[in-house]
Design a protein that fits this description.
about 35% helix; nine-stranded mixed beta sheet; globular; about 425 residues; 14 helices; single chain; alpha/beta
Length: about 425
């Protein structure tokens, strides 16, 4: 199949900011009017919403011929997942733009590694090193479970942002990215991790890496998408001083319990085994930090006991969460942890209150398709759900040379990268219009 052509028209104030009397409901061949779990797009019927404006401006959201085109050999979730992984492996991975690492010490004695994307090979960890206008977004990214800035899909997105003139950084969750671990704590899908992301935003603002009035946008993949979703949802109740103003979540789990159940039978359990091995490997190198720790994340003394043997014996993500993640973060079981951390049911007609893009593959063999906020998208004018029949887990193969996070030409964006960046550009134009 021929490589896919660019999927959207150039976005700018003229294409997305229109006068009130000219608002018309966007006509889209891809809109799913009724039902769920169908390929297409789900969004509010309010014609003046930021999402409706995006649909009007983006051909990839209006015309089926510009939607994701999956080659015949990738129309299986497992194949799409595995082939994409092979295309992104080793020397085939996306080169990205290069990073400068910042180490941020947290109040609990922990350390967060933040890899700030270089600009044309030049260090960019200070505001003076960046020629970006303060109206341009600073894009924060979070990779999937155990992932980091080295993941090719993150590298590719940093390059896609750079081509737009936007600065970016990848936040490595505790224990990932080969960064130092200086406290007895790793990461979870919500508790602790959303606090860490807010801490990073505040620190980067204080250090001048992010401009005082510069908007912060966020992208997350897989578990990172879950963390990003939870962060924007929590904003509506916590009202923190520094917020994500626009977000995108790709291939994320929205019902962690159902995702865990999906990973039990063969062949799906192979994914869980491999990811559990990765978590155990991370833990082995930092386990000494848990020696003598008996207080859980909630500050409850005597409620946590580190059992390295149980952790190292984990054969699945569920095993690891039962042994370490759930008890440390103050949950009685992995099921309790999953129920609390699943963002799907917390999407409503009013939350999130910032433009949010959800891209999910209906054949994802790792996180599944349960909990995706289809119905909330029809009521919430800030929420757009894009569902693809094919894509696997973070695959979205378009050809043997192009897909999510990989391209034979590193200067070329994939369909997912184009959609995310176009969504951000539309939100940026909307922001400028409302402020003007």
């Amino acid at each position: 199949m021929a490589p896919q052509q660019p999927t959207s028209e150039p976005l700018g104030p003229q294409s997305v900011i229109v006068s009130e009397e000219k608002y018309v409901h966007p006509r889209s061949e891809l809109r799913v009017e009724t039902g769920t779990h169908k390929e297409g797009i789900y969004f509010s019927s309010r014609p003046s919403s930021v999402v409706s404006r995006f649909v009007r401006a983006c051909t990839a959201m209006r015309e089926r011929s510009s939607f994701l085109r999956t080659p015949w050999w990738a129309r299986n979730g497992h194949v799409n997942t595995l082939v994409a992984h092979m295309f992104r492996a080793g020397s085939k991975g996306h080169p990205g733009e290069g990073y400068d690492r910042m180490l941020l010490r947290t109040d609990d004695g922990g350390t967060l590694s933040v890899d700030v994307t270089r600009r044309n090979g030049v260090a960019s960890t200070t505001a003076s090193a960046s020629p970006c206008a303060e109206d341009d977004p600073f894009v924060l990214m979070i990779a999937g479970l155990g992932g980091s800035s080295a993941d090719p899909y993150a590298q590719a997105m940093t390059s896609a942002c750079a081509r737009r003139g936007w600065r970016s950084a990848v936040v490595c969750m505790r224990g990932t990215g080969q960064g130092p671990v200086t406290s007895g704590r790793l990461f979870s899908a919500r508790r602790g991790s959303t606090d860490d992301l807010r801490f990073v935003m505040a620190e980067l603002k204080e250090k001048g890496v992010i401009g005082e009035n510069q908007p912060i946008f966020g992208v997350g993949w897989s578990l990172g998408g879950c963390i990003m979703s939870n962060t924007v949802l929590e904003q509506d109740s916590l009202d923190p001083a520094v917020k994500i103003e626009c977000a995108a979540s790709l291939g994320a789990p929205y019902d962690l319990h159902k995702s865990s159940e999906l990973l039990k039978p063969f062949p799906n359990r192979v994914y869980s085994q491999r990811m559990a091995q990765g978590l155990v490997q991370i833990l082995r190198t930092v386990a000494h930090n848990f020696d003598g720790v008996t207080t859980n994340y909630l500050g409850e003394e005597g409620k946590f006991r580190f059992d390295p043997d149980a952790c190292y014996a984990s054969k699945s993500i569920l095993d690891f969460d039962e042994a370490l993640t759930a008890p440390f973060f103050g949950f009685g079981s992995a099921r309790d942890y999953y129920d609390y951390s699943s963002p799907g049911r917390r999407f409503t007609e009013s939350s999130p209150s910032v433009p949010t893009l959800v891209i999910s593959a209906l054949d994802d063999p790792v996180v599944g398709n349960v909990g995706i906020p289809f119905e909330a998208a029809r009521e919430n004018e800030n929420l757009l759900v894009v569902a693809t029949d094919c894509g696997g887990h973070l695959g979205w193969c378009q050809s043997s040379r192009l897909g999510c996070g990989f391209a034979s030409d590193a200067g070329e964006s994939s369909w997912t990268e184009d959609v995310v960046c176009d969504f951000f550009a539309n939100a940026l134009d909307h922001r400028a219009g409302t402020r003007g």
